[in-house]
Amino acid sequence: MTKFAKFYGANPLHLLAMIFCFVLGLAVVYTAGPMTFWNTDIWWQSIAVWFVGAAVAHDLVLFPLYAVADLSLRSGLDAMRGRRRSRPPLVPVLNYIRVPVLATGLTFLMFFPGIIEQGKEAYVAATGLTQEPYLLRWIVLVAVMFASSAVLYAIRCAIVQKRGSSPVSATER
């Protein structure tokens, strides 16, 4: 088992899960038919083109931006920590910032057309409603996510302080 993990780089269950995912994907393509994913009239509106484009855009553009943003956040927290105290905090704040920021970005991506009121006429014709509430509702959602994260961080700090000062492991930082 250790030879396999050393050769493959992960647990055999990872390989099994990857094989299952590829088989499931191929089953979807087979069931729906390959031409379902390709628009013969307007090629750039094809699901396949958007899927490949999204993968390339994510890997070549967005992932480096995530990495830079995360590095900036960690460096900033380390700089603040260095000025204030010499030992690491008992409860690391990093994930309490990462999660709501990620959720903010994902919800913005999902609701972007509504937030900028794209397709206003079609939306009103289809629903009889306007897109005006989207921006305010998204801002409230973001505020709730950050407030929830802050409350959870405060609760965790209180629990750790009540138990006593036991340092966090390197993986939690």
Helices, strands, pairings?
Blueprint (H helix, E strand, L loop, with lengths): L1 H7 L3 H21 L14 H38 L9 H22 L4 H8 L5 H31 L10
Describe the structure.
- With 173 residues, the chain is mostly helical.
- It has 2 domains: 47-86; 89-173.
- Helices cover 73% and strands 0% of the residues.
- The protein contains 6 helices and no strands.
- The mean pLDDT is 87.
- Keywords: Membrane, Transmembrane, Transmembrane helix.
SSE pattern, N- to C-terminal: HHHHHH
What gross morphology would you assign?
A: flat
CA radius of gyration is: 23 Å
Count of distinct structural domains: 2
Estimated share of beta-strand residues: under 5%
**Main beta sheet:** none
Number of strands: 0
Structural class by secondary-structure content: mainly alpha
End-to-end separation: 30 Å
List low-confidence stretches. Answer: none
What would the average pLDDT be, to the nearest integer?
87
Keywords: Membrane, Transmembrane, Transmembrane helix
Transmembrane segments: 12-30, 42-69, 90-115, 135-155
Please give a handful of descriptors for the protein shown.
mainly alpha, 6 helices, transmembrane, transmembrane helix, membrane
